[in-house]
Amino acid sequence: MKNTNKENENQYDSLKDITEFQNNMFNPGHYIGTGKIPPTVSAPGNAMPLAVVCFIATIVFLGFGLFLFFGNVTVTSGGLIKSQIINKIIALVIMLGISVFCLLLGFRYFKKSKVFYKEKSTLQKEKIDETVEDQLWQRTCPKCGISHDFDYPKCPNCKFSYID
Ligand SMILES: [Zn+2]
Q1: How far is the CA of 135 from the centre of ligand 1 (A)?
Q2: Is the pLDDT assigned to residue 1 strictly greater than 80?
Q3: Does residue 126 lie in a domain region?
């Protein structure tokens, strides 16, 4: 029991964040200098779609860079650099940089979505525990064997009375 409490301490408490935001949303400068991020900006939720978009952008920028480098196209830098091969290398490096940035961003979103799915499955497990608790408040009729809520004075199926 102590262990689970400690685990919950480290878990992200969205309700606490939302309460803090609602109490201070008209208080300018509340978040400045605290290192905290309001939930409307940090947007806790499923980041998987964003991760997919980032991975697609990585491929698109990388492909565009390779197309500019190897394709039969002219890359210009407004006349600054005359050499075609240097222009192509610069374009490739820029596109490579953008695609690496997208890739890193994608991995970050992917990690965030893993936390989201983990918390979702934890919530679903808690729901299953609730149904087990519900079964504790059930009793089985000695006459017909059907299970029903504990507080019925009579069996809803065969009207067997528990009182007399
Ligand atoms: Zn019964």
Answers
A1: 17
A2: no
A3: no
User: Region 108-118: what's the mean pLDDT?
Assistant: 89
- CA–centroid distance, 131 to ligand 1, in Å, is 22
Q: Domain range for residue 112? A: 10-120
pTM over 0.85: no
Look at the chain and report how many structural domains it folds into.
1
For residues 135-149, average pLDDT = 86
Find the 127 Cα to ligand 1 centroid distance in Å: 29
Domain assignment of residue 131, yes or no: no
Distance from first CA to last CA of the chain, Å, rounded? 43
In a domain, 91, yes or no: yes
Average pLDDT of the residues in 21-49: 82
Dihedral of alpha carbons 93, 94, 97, 98, sign: negative
| Neighbouring C-alpha atoms within 13 Å toward the C-beta of 152 | 17
Region 31-50: mean pLDDT is 80
In a domain, 129, yes or no: no
How many residues would you count in the chain? 164
pLDDT at 131 over 90: no
Query: 113: which 2 tokens?
Result: 């979505």
CA of 136 to the centre of ligand 1 (A): 18
